[in-house]
Write a structure and sequence with these properties.
One of its GO terms (molecular function) is DNA-binding transcription factor activity. By secondary structure, the protein is an all-alpha fold. The chain is built from twelve helices and two strands. α10 packs antiparallel against α11.
């Protein structure tokens, strides 16, 4: 393995320790030598991995002290790796609230732009995503449903034909994936209402009704919120 590949692999391992809660915010990580022994690697590679995580705001490195896990507010949530790592774990209600707020800021307005700018090819791509979701529901396959969901939302981002939003596409999708992993029903057969909501967005975009597309997408995001935080007082402020 190339040194850079080793460093990336170590970065992934240590990041998983953190996002899984094995080491909590403000808790010290093991020393470099101990990590090197545990992960069967060199101290130099471990140090490089820790520097990677420090650059993402996940840990604090201090001279002659063990690295400390940073509080989550200091993490770089615009970093796609951070979002990817978090998408694999069950997040706190606080994180989910922030995610839903972020989605509320972007997704409804992206859907409105898509209604104004979508081409026939864009609509066909949205239909592909919708059909993947429908087939996933019919086949009882959650993974297929999730893939279709992501495909659908990515197609809407592309249909906005805004270069700045397209540039943010991967980040927005990572945000959606993290939100989806914490809000979707375990039983994919219960996803009928979600399918209808996505179809309504698609139809609004097809009819170039920006106002309806914005509203329908907002309803999708809020429906996700209701599934995980039905009694959260902050939820009311997000609706209004």
């Amino acid at each position: 393995m190339k040194p850079t590949t080793i460093t990336l692999a170590l970065t992934e391992k240590i990041a998983q320790w953190i996002v899984s809660g094995q080491y909590a915010p403000e808790e010290q990580l093991p020393g470099e030598n101990e990590i090197a022994r545990t992960l069967e690697s060199s101290r130099t590679s471990v140090r490089a991995a820790l520097q990677n995580l420090a650059g993402k705001g996940m840990i604090i490195i201090q001279p002659k002290k063990r690295s400390t896990v940073a509080v989550i507010e200091q993490w770089n949530w615009l970093d796609s790796d951070v979002m990817r790592w978090m998408s694999g774990v069950k997040s706190s209600d606080r994180i989910i609230t922030h995610l839903i707020a972020t989605r509320l800021m972007f997704e409804p307005n992206i859907a409105a732009l898509a209604a104004l700018n979508a081409t026939g090819r864009d609509l066909a791509e949205m239909e592909v995503g919708y059909e993947m979701m429908r087939d996933g529901r019919d086949n009882g396959c959650r993974e297929q449903f999730n893939q279709g969901d992501i495909y659908f939302h990515r197609a809407i981002i592309m249909a906005a034909h805004n270069p700045f939003l397209v540039g943010l596409g991967d980040l927005l999708i990572a945000t959606m994936e993290l939100s989806f992993s914490n809000t979707l029903e375990d039983d994919v057969s219960l996803s009928g209402p979600a399918l209808q909501e996505h179809w309504d967005v698609l139809e609004a975009i097809r009819l170039r009704n920006a106002k309806t597309a914005r509203q329908r997408m907002r309803e999708i995001v809020l429906a996700s919120m209701r599934k995980v935080l039905p009694h959260d007082p902050d939820f009311v402020s997000l609706i209004h």
